[in-house]
């Protein structure tokens, strides 16, 4: 049973942070985006109720002023004006933390990670699971990411980068862009046409070529039957068929 989700009820006052934009405003939601937290290995959610953020791009180093707190286990900075976000310079985005599915716990909420596993689709949801069945994680793809979920075939092995958060139904991984998903091994597929051709070929061979391994028993002397009257033909046909 999922543990209760931390709510935004722990505002502790004004703060200033610097971090690199990991996902731009409007990708996951209109009212927030994510940046790396320069103080820890986790990330920070920058929230603005109006959604009127300045134009931001992934990889930009920013300085954010606002009220700090927690929301669903992730550190949040709530701003009140567009000027509370200042773009300092361009940077390379940080690399995700590579982790195993079996190791994921609540401690990874608010982390920028990369995981690998087998794609499983169930009741319209997508999961990534270890091939040995030990550990799984729900993958949620937002519409604005541009990711085509149809390309994630069930049974394929995929490498997925994203942000881990937590809802009332448990942990989930949020990929940001199409480049966050890489299929490392396609799903095994059976070639139906080749299979059908092979089956037809076997049927044709068995129908046209007698099996030389069969044992044949030679028939004894042929018995010549005398001519019979028309009214007795039916009886003789029956007797001949029975004898055969």
What does this structure look like?
With 244 residues, the chain is mainly β. It is 11% helix and 36% strand. It contains 2 helices and 13 strands, in the order E-E-E-E-E-E-E-E-E-E-E-E-E-H-H. It has helices at 192-208, 233-243; strands spanning 13-23, 32-36, 43-47, 60-71, 74-78, 85-90, 97-98, 112-122, 125-129, 136-139, 157-167, 170-174, 181-185. The strands form 2 sheets. A 5-stranded mixed barrel has the order 1-2-3-5-4. A hairpin with a 2-residue loop joins strand 4 (60-71) and strand 5 (74-78). It is elongated, with a radius of gyration of 35 Å.
Number of helices: 2
Radius of gyration over alpha carbons? 35 Å
Write down the oligomeric state.
single chain
Give the strand tally: 13
Query: Which regions contain 5 or more consecutive residues with pLDDT less than 50?
Result: 1-9, 190-195, 202-208, 235-240
Task: Give the CA-based shape.
Answer: elongated
Largest sheet: 5 strands, mixed, barrel
- Average of pLDDT: 80
- Order of the strands making up the biggest sheet: 1-2-3-5-4
Secondary structure category: mainly beta
Q: Helical residue percent? A: 10-25%
Q: Whole-Å distance between the termini? A: 74 Å
Listing every helix as H and every strand as E from the N terminus to the C terminus, the arrangement reads: EEEEEEEEEEEEEHH
Per DSSP, what share of the residues sits in E-state strands of 2 or more residues?
35-45%
Helices and strands, with pairings:
Blueprint: E1 13-23, E2 32-36, E3 43-47, E4 60-71, E5 74-78, E6 85-90, E7 97-98, E8 112-122, E9 125-129, E10 136-139, E11 157-167, E12 170-174, E13 181-185, H1 192-208, H2 233-243
